[in-house]
Amino acid sequence: xxxRLLEVFFYPPMAIGRLGGSNIPLESFTxxxxxxxxxxxxxxIEPAISLEIQPDGSxxxxxxSIIHFKDQNLFRPVAPFFELWARVQNSxxxxxxxxxxxxxxxxxxVPLDAVSYVVEAANLKAARRTGDPTCGFSAxxxxxxxxxxxxxxLATSPRGVGSEPLVLPDKPIPLGHIQVIRPVDAxxxxxxxxxxxxxxxxxxxxxxxxxxxxxxxxxxxxxxxEIVLEQNRILNSNSSWLNYNADFTRYHNPDPYDTYDGADxxxxxxxxxxxxxxxxxCDGIITAFVVVAGERFRAVTRFFSGPPDFAPDRRPFxxxxxxxxxxxxxxxxxxxxQLTTSEIAxxxxxxxxxxxxxxxxxxxxxxxxxxxxxxxxxxxxESPPRTDFGSMTSVDKPYADKVPxxxxxxxxxxxxxxxxxxxxxxxxxxxxxxxxxxxxxxxVRVEYLLRPPYGVVAELGEQPPETPEPRHRDVxxxxxxxxDMRMPPxxxxxxxxxxxxxxxxxxxxxxxxxxxxxxxxTELALTSRQVAPVATVATPVRxxxxxxxxxxxxxxx
Length: 557
Prior knowledge:
This protein has helices at about 100-105, 125-130, 320-330, 335-355, 360-370, 405, 415-430, 430-440, 445-450, 480, 505-515, 520-525, 540-555, and strands spanning about 5-10, 15-20, 30-35, 45, 50-55, 60, 70, 75, 80-90, 95-100, 115-125, 135-145, 150-155, 175-180, 185-190, 190, 195-200, 205-210, 215, 225, 280, 280-290, 295-305. By secondary structure, the chain is an alpha+beta fold.
């Protein structure tokens, strides 16, 4: 008795590609801790099994010995694969989720060409700003699973009434290409080559504009630069995108509003007017259809393309995965101390890795200048930290009580004192034992140094309170939106307001701090670092040392 198909779905359900000018995609890698004794458990990248598309459309698994990020100064694109999976009911009544393979199709008596894909990709950023659909551009490709030829995603703009399309049909913008993988009944290096797969390869990372997008002064420096390469000046000069100027009386602008080419350019003729420039990033949807005995099953996955990762061995402390976890996962129970400690330690390691890339001095200056336009009154006692240029200085007490002393030390005597201090302070917190000791001893300080996340609807009143709540923020309160030195300091959220950890991260840290503080007398925890002896923690550094010693002992034997 043949199995019964119940459902089809993609794995992964969502993936991020990255632009690149090279014709060779980036190999796969994973994040690992440095295994060497001197590596101090820092994050490194480690090559992983990668898939190379062969001339016949099949794939060859291999393990690269080194990761190449560029070819002749051109970035390699990150080109994700998507696998089709199935939920099937077996002859014995059991239900399982398995990859949809060529062999399974045969068991279902389904030919390969009964599987088809529809790929849609679009860039709607200019349309979002102008409110004019003709300023967006999109591509659509339909292909069957027995066709393994690559197909370009050539995007054009729709026609509209009273407006002209930005991207003309005879001059499309390539948004990358897709290719169905030819399934082969074989397994190599643990990879089933018979799984039905499709790959999205992002575009090159080019910008496009109208014939007028030649040269212009850069905001601030007034340095003249070329806006768009001559061969990419292909857009329609009569498009409404060239008249956009972020006028709030005409447009419903996003925040931040000034992130288009032409903003912040001080010119009496073209002040704030868009240069009509777009890029080849995109969002997309892949829909798969599988027809079995007259019944059609449908699976959907999504892809996004963005710029290259300029620091692939550094992990951000706030990711899309953290947002999804915040939405779907509960905060781990505090009695699961190993999981809680592991997650919090990983978070603080990522904080340090992010800080190693951040110019905190420049961020502070930008954020406090942005605050200058607010109507927040002067700070008073017991109020949140300062939002003016007294922020993170000796007058910003009790939040910055240690920063002035740290800045005077040799580690910070350079052109970026705040950056140096932040990196120095957080470096020690990448060790689990030091982190646990810090949270146990200075729990009260940690609590008021963490910026609360925005509250959910159930936490917000019908009218905003007169003063900010201590454990959540309200976007309707101006004070809750502006920047200060609370962690993470001076960083922008997606809407240009002050960034915070996710609710899950915030509550997990404070819950862990409360548990640690309960183990120490209050007066000791608040006034001293002399805490009671604690059990030895298997920190990453200790684990590495133990492994190195074990390897050396084995070699001597």
